[in-house]
Amino acid sequence: MAVNLAPPQAEDLYPVAGVELGFAEAGIRKAGRRDLMLMRLAPGSRVAGVFTQNSFAAAPVQICREHLRTGAIRALLVNAGNANCGTGATGLAAAQRSCVAVARELGCTPQEVLPFSTGVILEHLPVERIEAALPACVATLGADRWCEAASAIMTTDTVPKGSSRRVLIDGVSVTVTGIAKGVGMLQPNMATMLAYLATDAALPQDLLQHLVKEVADVSFNRVTVDGDTSTNDSFVLIATGQARLAAVSDRSGAQYALLRGALIEVAQQLAQSIARDGEGATKFITVNVAGAASEPEALAVARAIANSPLVKTALFASDPNLGRLLMAIGNAGVPDLDTSAVQLYLGDVHVIENGGRAAAYREEDGARVMAPAEISLRVELGRGTAATTVWTCDFSYEYVKINAEYRT
Amino acid sequence: MAVNLAPPQAEDLYPVAGVELGFAEAGIRKAGRRDLMLMRLAPGSRVAGVFTQNSFAAAPVQICREHLRTGAIRALLVNAGNANCGTGATGLAAAQRSCVAVARELGCTPQEVLPFSTGVILEHLPVERIEAALPACVATLGADRWCEAASAIMTTDTVPKGSSRRVLIDGVSVTVTGIAKGVGMLQPNMATMLAYLATDAALPQDLLQHLVKEVADVSFNRVTVDGDTSTNDSFVLIATGQARLAAVSDRSGAQYALLRGALIEVAQQLAQSIARDGEGATKFITVNVAGAASEPEALAVARAIANSPLVKTALFASDPNLGRLLMAIGNAGVPDLDTSAVQLYLGDVHVIENGGRAAAYREEDGARVMAPAEISLRVELGRGTAATTVWTCDFSYEYVKINAEYRT
Predict the structure, then answer these.
(1) Chosen domain end from B223, B258, B275
(2) Same domain, yes or no, for A134 and A205?
(3) Which among B157, B53, B330 has a CA at the least distance from the CA of A185?
């Protein structure tokens, strides 16, 4: 069960001028569920994306990278149930063919279509089922379909994930809305398992490309479920330019700061939703590391904690097992770490003081802060001023069950 | 339950001339179980060790490193139940005090004693209980106590681990006997969670130091249970020089090759025993990676597979989930990996051919090789001639249970 995560309602996700969404049941892996999502963008929209660093980047990821070189994108097509990864030339051809089908339906070129796939790896994409379902998908296109779109891209997700903000820039209300999916094989590196953010602000391509990385680095690149980076991770940022506002083109301006803030808020909420719905999650964990010599160092410590199976099973048990946390910090590969400077807080309780058990620590205080479904850990390394935050979940019996039975 | 792993019998573990072992119930963590082990070495014995790379190296590890600078060691003392880690100056003093107590009992100096601890982290070592139990430990000292010694160092181990070989060198029968413990918080880096190998051959200190690293790198450094490197990992190699054989001092000689071979056999069997008894293990997995550009590259790929929670849960389910294996290979960080050159074999079945599903692969063949309790994976990267092998186990419900309930 997801941790404190309710499905978004239609009124929660504001339409973004210039974006329409449709969905259909294509029967790609299982019949009777929505598994195809189409997003149509108004002419003039700009799109930027970041993608998985896994060597086996899926066929649609390879095609997205190619089509994004031009930046003129009119549609995004997403299928769930099949990842179209490890499928070689046949997989590339199938992804291309799906772009051709969309182009034919919408009256654009195949190069203006971005394809995305998520699901089982190493099986061929039944592209003919996508072609057959596309007209139904087009028939449902609407600006208020964000919730349905969020549902149509789910695989083992138990809750659809969406977030929305409005921000006033120069007196104009600008909208940012995003959806995401992904609950396992999840430690995004540059991006996450399918997330789409759209704004009606106008942005030049170079700034959009800069923003998509900046936003990913403080949101999707800071969440982990199991430490495994998917072959299909994709995070796409869309700027339709439909708001009655001049293009935001100055990175030092107030407009940019406001827009960037709204984008990060939406992206962080989506990233947190992913950890809340992590496979088998019973706890939502925030790991904050401060006092690091650099941000990569802070991230290494945060991930060493967040990905340790021993830490994650202790979190599942609500067990303040401080030794495992100490072990995880020590395994992050921080060069010449002065362990006697390390502090660790569980919630508001100082548990590790100068590298040892805090003098005032009492087990019942640790047990108290470990009991709730939301737990915060804070590490201070005492080496500098860099800091970062990572979100994750625990490892439960249910995690093993879900992943032992995934294909059966 | 451990996978195909029987406890060693007394006749399986040959005495090593110059080594005596004793044990006692010190009640360090729980009453009524053997938790203290003492090893007495004959004068002239040489000892070398490698230890954890975790920043929070335990107090006894710090003292071992110091005492090993001289190399003249007469005794090893091991306690289970408490790791004496994250215990600061008090912990160092407690470990020192245990050396003093052993020195008093055996008539040597404290610097000639190596202390080892394994168990719960961040709790103070009850050294007075060790002092109280030492006379009983000394009273049991005997050359044929290897089996009891293996039992006395266990924590969550379900089976004691020991291995022994005899090898004829220049007409003299030379013995190698070793014991080890460790089933969780286990991905040794330079060493493993407490392993002791002794031989009656004579070796100069520099060669012994070279050998301990060489042996560790093809045995304990190639096993992983959960990817978490313990704070107390220690692997010690002892050469008593009691065999009627000249010192083995030529690294290019046949004597060295024979002795090295026997040491590696014993160490590999112990390392494999650790994976077979990995926490919650139902499968014993051998991951072989060949065709790598370098050995670190081969190791990175092998560990990416062996530590992936998604791969480990699929192994638990006997599910030939090829996509997860592909994902794991792709996450090893191999620069510019040509995915179309990658081959993967499950047992004798070619499952991934040139980066995609093998044309002749049938699911029932994959299911057949995944069904047994022992599974072999072989990856060929097509980049060079380097290769390595890693041993691991699966992730089961029992793993979560053991680690969620460890302290309760």
Answers:
(1) B275
(2) yes
(3) B330
- Name the nearest CA neighbour of A304 among B185, B391, B196: B185
Could you report the per-residue pLDDT of B134-169, keeping only the tens digit for each?
Answer: 999 999 999 999 999 999 999 888 999 999 999 999
The reply to whether residue B403 touches residue A313, judged by beta carbons under 8 angstroms, is yes
Spatial distance between the Cα atoms of A117 and A98, rounded to a whole number of angstroms: 11
Q: At which of B214, B243, B275 does a domain end?
A: B275
Q: Is residue A4 domain-resident?
A: no
Query: How many domains does one find in chain A?
Result: 2
Strands B374-380 and B343-346: antiparallel
Co-location of A177 and A48 in the same domain? yes
Count A/B contacts: CB-CB distance under 8 Å: 204
Please give the residue range of the domain that contains residue A335: 284-404
CA dist B178 and B272 (Å) reads 13
Examine the domain organization and report whether B385 and B305 are in the same domain.
yes
| Per-residue confidence (pLDDT) for residue A219, from 0 to 100 | 85
Give catalytic status of residue A177 as yes or no: no
Closest Cα to residue B180, out of B13, B26, B330, B60? B13
**pLDDT, tens digit (0-9, with 9 covering 90-100), for B164-200:** 999 999 999 999 999 998 877 777 765 556 888 899 9
Of the partner residues A324, A354, A396, the one whose CB lies closest to the CB of residue B400: A396
Tell me the sheet residues that pair with A50: A235
Would the CB atoms of B56 and A354 count as touching at under 8 Å?
A: no
Structure tokens at A197: 């953010």
Q: Which residues of A touch B83 (CB under 8 A)?
A: 323
Query: Quick one: A182 and A290 in the same domain?
Result: no
Q: What is the largest CA-CA distance in chain B?
A: 70
Q: What local confidence, expressed as pLDDT, does residue B406 receive?
A: 60
Q: Same domain, yes or no, for B65 and B132?
A: yes
pLDDT score of A53: 83
Cα(B152)–Cα(B81) distance, integer angstroms: 10
Residue A300's domain is classified under what CATH number? Answer: 3.10.20.340
| C-beta atoms of A56 and B85 within 8 A | no
Give pLDDT < 70 ranges for chain A: 71, 189-193, 406-408
Residue whose pair of structure tokens reads 């012994």 in the numeric block: B208
Give the C-alpha separation, A384 to A195, whole Å: 33
The pLDDT tens digits of the residues spanning B321-356 come to: 999 999 999 989 999 999 999 999 999 999 999 999
B67 neighbors B112 (Cβ within 8 angstroms) = yes
A83 vs B contacts (CB less than 8 Å): 323
User: Higher pLDDT residue, B214 or B142?
Assistant: B142
pLDDT of B98 above 70:
yes
CA gap A74, A18 in Å, rounded: 10
Q: Do B270 and B289 share a structural domain?
A: no
- What's the pLDDT score for residue A408? 47
